[in-house]
Known about the structure:
The protein is mostly helical.
Amino acid sequence: MIFYYIFLFLICCFLFYLAGGWLVNGLVKVSRLLGLREFVMAFLVMAFAASLPNLVVGISSGLRGFPELSFGDVSGNNLIALTLAVGIAAIFAKGGIPARSRMAKTTSWFVTIAALLPIFLILDGELSRLDGVLLILAFIFYIVWMFSKKERFTVNLEDNKSVSPLKFRAFFKDLMKVLLGLITFAVAAQGIVVSAKFFADQFNLSLVLIGILVTGVGSALPEMYFDVVSAKRGQTWLVLGDLMGAIIIPSTLVLGLVALLFPIHMSGLSSSSLALARIFIIVSALLFPILVKSGEEITKKEALLLLSIYIAFLIAQIFFFEIITNSGFNFLLK
């Protein structure tokens, strides 16, 4: 049974990766045909597509009665986006990832707030419906701020030309890709949630820890795929917009919707599992805007620093788990 669920999880992660590619490619082409602007496409279109795995995992886990998996999933996604995804993209990009626009610099602070807000709201052991409303309002506040001035999103990717019959056929084909990607996400999410619950029960792990270390990685695959491809093609202006949106949207809109429908309660085991991840998320979230503003780009040296933070988290998590399970501190898990 263990090998069956491992195989199921890996297959579902691959489907996430595949569907993410369909969604990103389809949405990029659709948005260009519609003449959407640079930051709107990078932040909203790609980031919304990359956040869909978090949403379907959250709704699926809530319907099955364990929405705390969603919190771990989003926490793991945030940690990966702030460290691993940015670091890998910066390494593949020629000359690092530029961050010269005022929009990117200001949004980096919204990223910090969005990543930290759920961490502090859950300190009382619950992400209530009221907390969910606050998270959704935080998302609405940022969107209103982004669209309040035209100069924040005035760069066109290309002229908005009329859609010819040939373009209409291409438009319809790309819409079908998006629809197929959404259906694949919905199916794969069921396998992710079922396998995550099995691992948690089989190895006496909290669902939050499974979310941080396992499903968070699977959910982050689409955005990592897109960021690496964009960096290699020299489209580095897309990377930051996608990564910032892939943190802000799951942390506020996705978690807010999940908490509104299925309030999240943290057990002692879940709280212990989140303790170490909380430290690394706080460090990464506070470091991110500093790196964006320093030199107006994220360099390869800074990328190595971000990668080392994630590696340090994995090592520390392994040692932390060994200590609390194999020593006299088992009471922490109760």
